[in-house]
Every structure is written in C-alpha cells, then in structure tokens.
Fold:
Amino acid sequence: MDTKTALFYVFSAILLFSAFRVITARSTVHSALFLVLAFFNAAGVWMLLQAEFLAISLVLVYVGAVMVLFLFVVMMLDINVDQMRQDFWKHFPLAGLVGAVIALEMAVVLMGGFNVPEAEPLSARALQFGNTKLLGYELYTKYLYPLEVAAVILLVAIIAAIALTMRQRKDSRYVDPSDQVKVKKADRLKVVAMKAEVEVAPVAAAAQNEQVSTGSKA
Structure:
C-alpha cells in the first residue's frame, strides 16, 4: 500500500465517522462542527484526486462561509433540540423505508456499471496548464455563455432575496435612504449656549449661615 492509498483510507474513515456523528450528536453545535470536519476530509479526498479547485472551493465556500453562518444562526437562536427529538422514533419506519429505497436504487445503478467514454487526449497547450488554470480556460472560452447565464440567475436571486426582506410590514423598522440624504446638521444637532462658570457664592453663604444658626441654638 502506497502513501496515497493510505491517505485515502484515512480521509475516508474520518469522513464517514464525522458524517455519522452529524446526525447522531445531541448538540447542534457539535453536529455543525462534525460537518466542518467532514468537509475538510472531503477536501482532502479531492486533493488526492488532483481536483484542487473543488477542494479549495469546498473549504472556502462551505467551511469558510456557509458553516460559519450555520454556527452563528444556531448559537444565536439557541434551539431546544431535546424538544424536537421527542417524536424522532415515530418517524423512523418511514425514514427507514425511504433509506432502503435509495439504497436499492444506488445498488441497481452500481451493479450495472459505469459506461464512461474515453476522454479525449489533451492538447499541447492544455498540458502546459495546471488543473485550476485548465478549468478557468474552459469556463471563460468554451463555456462563457453558460457561465454568464448562471451569473445573471444568481444576480436575480440576490435581488429577489433583498426585495423579499425589504417589504413593508407593521412590525419591521427600516430607514428610508432618501430621508437620510436630506437630513441636515441642524436637524440632528442642537447647540445650547451655557455659561462656563456658575456662581456658587450665595449658596455657600446660605449654608454657612445655616451652620451658624444651628450652632447658636445648640
């Protein structure tokens, strides 16, 4: 067994264990952390398969952005998982049936084998590039228009998400940008003229007279 095969078995074993702990851990924070561990080991497997772009994208996008957002939401909401797990075993027969159907479908596909056509030989220019550079070259030359269509779809999805969250509701508070632009300094700041020094001599004299009168009565 060479080093590459040994690393593959190590990454795969840790990946399976962490994926199992994602669905069995009692704490949602622990489940999210095990999912981060699963992503890191999946990235290691991708690196062994010489898919550097997929490995880096998995770490940057899912671990660096998505899972940080998941952890932030879970820790902010403080979800009571014990209450959600009360009726867990009631849905176990249906979940087991669905899992068995999926396992049978995968078995049918895998037993039939994969009819993968032979890959076309790479040109001399493609051999000069690395894996990531070759992928970028293919995206921005051969698949430029599908890439632009996907970018437009993502832009529309971002605008739609912002539009849905900016709808007017009675229980929501928001600031109109046009009103912010029209605000002047005089509307927000009021300068009050006050004396720098306050005369305390009469107050001190009254207090002294009161002390004198109190001493004479005593």
Remarks:
- The chain has a mean pLDDT of 78.
- The domain at 1-81 is CATH 1.20.120.1200 (Four Helix Bundle (Hemerythrin (Met), subunit A)).
- The radius of gyration is 34 Å.
